Amino acid sequence: MSLDSSISGCRLVQTGGEASVYRAFHGSDDHVVALKVYKARRAFNESLIQFLKSGKHPNVASLYATGAADGHTFTVSEYIRGVTSSALVPMPPSVAVHLLRGVSAGLSALARAELSHGDLNPENVLVRSDASPVLIDCGIEGLGAPRFAAPERFAGKAPSVKSDLFSAGLLLYFWIAGEPLFAGEKFESVASQISDVDQCDVSLLLHGKGRLSPAALGILDPLWKGLLRRDPDTRFEDFDELSEVLEIAEAHFSPRPGSFEKKEADLWLSALRAQVAEREAAVDKCTVTEPLAVQKKSCKKFMCILAASLFAVLAAAGLCLYLLPSGNVPVDQVGAKMLETSRRISTEDSSARNDVEQKGTWRGVLLGAPTPVQDEKEESK
Fold this sequence. Notes:
Blueprint: H1 3-6, E1 7-15, E2 19-26, E3 31-38, H2 46-54, E4 63-69, E5 72-78, E6 82-84, H3 93-112, E7 125-128, E8 133-135, H4 151-154, H5 161-177, H6 187-195, H7 202-209, H8 214-227, H9 239-253, H10 260-285, H11 291-326, H12 331-358
Antiparallel strand pairs: 1-2, 2-3, 3-5, 4-5, 6-7, 7-8
């Protein structure tokens, strides 16, 4: 895919240590898409790519194209008008369970294709203004976000349905409590806490926060017992089983009209819609940029520098061939002149290249993006 011929009107949505994301137009019909430009080469699971391109699921963002430019991988995918779930906590239990049902449906679709997400965390779940969740950034190669990883992932095991189930439990806790279940600052501390998950009484921790009634804690308890277990074999069998338990929990949590729970859920939904509108307005204000157009312009300037350097070297070589037969200049002096010319060319070439980089034109957006609209997400690969 040729990025410069199909993508236009890029506006920055967010940037982080791994990549920058833009809202852009794709193709002649100006279809709105999400352009994600990684800061380094990245390999993708080909089976996952084919699934995301061919299978449309309401809870999984579709993928339109992948490619590479100047050593940087990029993806063009469905643009979700929503905000990350991390910006919406703490949530009423009824809302959190509802969202997890949607996430579970998306993960179940992946599982049927013998695929898994691999990095299920609050940043990788976008929520639309109608409170429907959408999974993004499927198919992580490394560990993913440590605070939301399953114990076996720390041992180097590949992502699976079972590891995604564990991450779903940590995600649900985060949504309700407003903070990670395992909040250590050091990697080793988080890994140790997750390894000892069987010793953790999640219901007791939530009770200590004083936000949930004993009845609500009892409704959630089967979820913790089926998700947050160290041994993968003791977790739910699959996402179909999880969905059944979530359906029962959602029915129990369904708020009555006029109740405090209903008012709480309505306030949350209003806040969600306001955040989505604010996010889109902020993106609208961002300067339009063309990543590859900037890159091509910079490459042209750099090629001119290289051409000038090559011409100078050839000229020096020509002078050497001309002078040596005539005997007008000693060989040692010719050698010195060529060395001096070579050093001067090298210095000028390096200086010019550095100047281009410092002015922000070399590689353009692919290496440095404008100020982000959203905070960088934390992710460990």
